[in-house]
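User: quick one - fold this with iron/sulfur cluster bound?
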Amino acid sequence: MKKWTELVPGAVVLEAGSSAKFKTGSWRTFRPEWLQENCIQCLMCWLYCPDMAVKVADGKMTGFDYDYCKGCGVCAKECPGKQGKKAIIMKPEGK
Amino acid sequence: MGKVVAVTGNEAVANALRQADPDVCSLYPITPQTDIVQRFSSFVANGVVQTELLNAESEHSAMSAAIGASAAGGRVVTATSSQGLALMWEMLHIASGMNLPIVMPLVNRALSAPLNIHGDHSDGMGARDTGWVQLWSESAQEAYDNTIMAFRVAEHADIRLPVMVCMDGFIVSHSIARMEYLGDEEVKNFIGPYQTVNPLLDMEHPKSFGPLILTDLYHEYKRLQHEIMGRVKNVVLQVSDEFEKLSGRKYGLFESYRLDDADIALVILNSAAGTSKDVVDELRDKGIKAGLLKPRLFRPFPYEEIGKALKHLKAVCVMDRADSFGGYGPMFMEISSAMYQADGNGKRPKLINKIYGLGGRDYMPSDARQVLLELNEIAGGAPVTAVKEYIGVRE
Ligand code: SF4
Ligand code: SF4
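Assistant: Sure. Structure tokens for the protein plus iron/sulfur cluster:
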């Protein structure tokens, strides 16, 4: 832990990308679960996620990064799914 | 070269801002400050300054824009009064907590309710705990000089803090007085080019302002803020010394008037100090050893220096043009603290507190005379009947 004499005045963070160190996943009470069979790869979840917690590789949704997913449920709400069947559902954490 | 003029306090301050030629001015008009930003807008419209003008939709937004522009790396000004300052309140703490050297003239005006547009110190006193440096000014000349010095103080590498320059609404802001302008080049050289510290617009070095800091470090950041505030006195003295070389006008942390050999004294801010000095002279002519102390740097408050300057007195009246309802007047609390800590070999002056001039109520020589004569009796052994009392009020 830093002493006050070691701090940057104004609490300016001089290091770029340091928010990666702040794991927000521990706040979660509901976790999103991906039902791959219903996924049409529209990437709406990736577009809407406020925490960049939807993992995408080669242009395809591949799951969630639970280190940063806060469980807000925006992805599940926006997910169109396949023929009315959601590809993301929210489940209580720890169950 | 200096130029003698007859102008209002607002015109003087607007010209100080013109001479500083800031990068950004965010503004929202409010009586009695409007005249400053209106004049400054004309300077922008006429191309006299290079400033980018931002018309905000409220004072809260004006201060928010000032914070953004300052963090981005610009020299930034705004100005306000009364309700405008009150609306800025949460942003004032953010400006100081982020160490942003914003300069803001504050044309002191009473706070509502009841609604009143005239001069008192309720607005500035309400902002004393926001982490801003406060310089108070007796006259148009002092408001102009303090505004110019404010840039040097705010932008000093040791502190980087926002500075509020206070002057009395209408009494100074709208009254025409004789004063002296410095030359444009002189001011430009005195203030110097703006030095950025960690500017957001430095794309090579990305950074973040305003992070979330919880129980692990917040206390340490506030300790650092306390440390930085402790350096302000020296910066103000250093800048004032340099300013004296340029202008011939001497400024300190406060002004002492006939205080060294005095028995009794008034402590009083801003324009009313002028009236009071006349009455001090009058009583001196009658053989009463009266004096006066006029604070200039109110935040940080120079407790030791003021304690030293007042400790030899027999009786002191602290005059407050603002009230802390349910408490003593705000300046009385500071002077009481200063006197409690001052080493007077067990002796310290008797202290009383008068509330005067709220909502622009005239402060007359007769008011100063009445208070000084009461002090003279207390100095002679009469008991203090009331610590805090309103004067100039219909009973
Ligand atoms: S629950 Fe919220 S944070 Fe988590 S992946 Fe979905 S949108 Fe992102
Ligand atoms: S929004 Fe739903 S359907 Fe679209 S990519 Fe994400 S999980 Fe698949």
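One thing worth noting: Chain A touches chain B through 18 residues (CB under 8 Å).
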